[in-house]
Design goal:
By secondary structure, the chain is α/β, with parallel strands linked by helices. The chain is about 40% helix and about 20% strand. The radius of gyration is 19 Å and the shape is globular. The structure holds adenosine monophosphate.
Length: about 290
C-alpha cells in the first residue's frame, strides 16, 4: 500500500498503473478519515470491482459551516492506515489542506434543487463544499468507479446529479448503510456521544424500522405527512433527542410528495441532535 501526500505523485502513480496494465479499472473511495466498518465496506466493494483501489482521506474545510465541528473532527492516521491495509487498498491519498487549496478557490461547483432540503437546508454551503472537493478529487484520481455510502443519501443524489450534468466519466456506486449490531448507523461522529446519548441515539434506527413496518403493513393510501408525524412522535419519546429534520421526500429527486404511492421510491431522512452531536440516518423505500 502506498501513502501519497502530493497531487502530482498520485497522478503519476495512477498513470503508471494504467500504462503498465492496459484497461485496468480504477476504484475510488473519498473519505474524511477516522475510518470504521462503513468506510471499510466501500473499500471492500471497490476491491471486488476494480483493479486499483484509491482511498482519499481529507477533512475538507470547504464543507464545514462556521459553527460546525471542523477543528474537533476526529482523526487517527495510524488506525486509518491499518483499516485501509486490511481491505487491500492500493493507494492512500492523504493531502494537506495547503495541497488541496493552495489559494482560496474561486471556483465552486454548486448543484441546485437536490440540495435545497434536508442537510442542504440545515447546513448552508455544505454541498457546494462537497461537490467542489469531489470534483477536484475526481480530476486528480480520474477513477472509473467511485464508491459512496447510502448513509449520506443526499450526498449520493447530489454527486450523481453533478456527474450526469457535467458528463464526468465516472460511475457512482452506492453502498448500503453499515450499522452496529444494535442498529446505530456507523459514523465517525459517534465517538462524540456520551453513554446516555449513545443509548438514546438508537431512536433513529428504531424510528426508521417503525416507519418502514407501518408503510409495508398499511393498507390503502398513506400520506407523507401522516408518516412524518408518526416518525416525529416516535423520536420525541427520547427526552434528549432534538430533531433537526425528519422528512419524507421522493428519492433521488428529493422533491416533496403527498401520497407515498405516487413515486417509485421515497426516502425517510433524519437528522437529530444528541447534545452537541448531530447524527443522520435514513431508509429508502422502493415499491
Ligand atoms: P465520511 O468520512 O463521513 O465523509 O464518509 C466517507 C464515505 O463513507 C461516504 O460515502 C459515506 O457515505 C460513507 N459512510 C459513512 N458511514 C457509513 C456507513 N455507516 N455505512 C456505509 N457507508 C458509510
Amino acid at each position: 500500500m502506498q501513502i501519497i501526500h502530493h497531487i502530482q505523485e498520485l497522478r503519476q502513480l495512477v498513470r503508471e498503473a494504467k500504462s503498465a496494465r492496459g484497461g485496468i479499472k480504477v476504484g475510488f473511495v473519498p473519505t474524511m478519515g477516522y475510518l470504521h466498518q462503513g468506510h471499510a465496506s466501500l473499500l471492500e466493494a471497490a476491491r471486488k470491482q476494480c483493479d486499483l483501489v484509491v482511498l482519499s482521506i481529507f477533512v475538507n474545510p470547504l464543507q464545514f459551516g462556521p459553527n460546525e465541528d471542523l477543528s474537533r473532527y476526529p482523526r487517527d492516521e495510524e488506525r486509518d492506515l491499518a483499516v485501509a491495509k486490511a481491505t487491500g487498498t492500493d493507494i492512500v491519498f492523504f493531502p494537506s489542506v495547503e495541497e488541496m487549496y493552495p489559494r482560496p478557490t474561486k471556483t465552486i461547483v454548486s448543484v441546485i434543487e437536490v440540495t435545497e432540503r434536508l442537510c442542504g437546508a440545515s447546513r448552508p454551503g455544505h454541498f457546494d463544499g462537497v461537490a467542489t472537493v469531489v470534483t477536484k478529487l475526481f480530476n486528480i484520481v480520474q477513477p472509473d468507479y467511485a464508491f459512496f455510502g447510502m448513509k449520506d443519501a443526499q450526498q449520493i443524489a447530489v454527486i450523481q446529479q453533478m456527474v450526469d450534468d457535467l458528463n464526468m466519466p465516472v460511475e457512482i456506486v452506492p453502498c448500503k448503510i453499515v450499522r452496529e449490531e444494535d442498529g446505530l448507523a456507523l459514523s465517525s461522529r459517534n465517538v462524540y456521544l456520551e453513554p446516555e446519548e449513545r443509548e438514546q441515539a438508537l431512536i433513529l434506527s428504531s424510528a426508521l424500522n417503525m416507519a418502514e413496518k407501518l408503510v409495508r403493513e398499511h393498507k390503502g393510501p398513506l400520506l407523507a405527512s401522516e408518516l412524518q408525524e408518526a416518525v416525529k412522535q416516535h423520536i420525541d419519546q427520547s427526552s434528549i433527542a432534538e430533531i433537526d429534520y425528519a422528512d419524507i421526500l421522493a428519492y433521488p429527486s428529493l422533491e416533496p410528495i403527498t401520497d407515498l404511492r405516487s413515486v417509485p421510491a421515497f426516502i425517510i431522512a433524519l437528522a437529530v441532535k444528541f447534545g452537541k452531536t448531530r447524527l443522520i440516518d435514513n431508509t429508502i423505500i422502493r415499491w
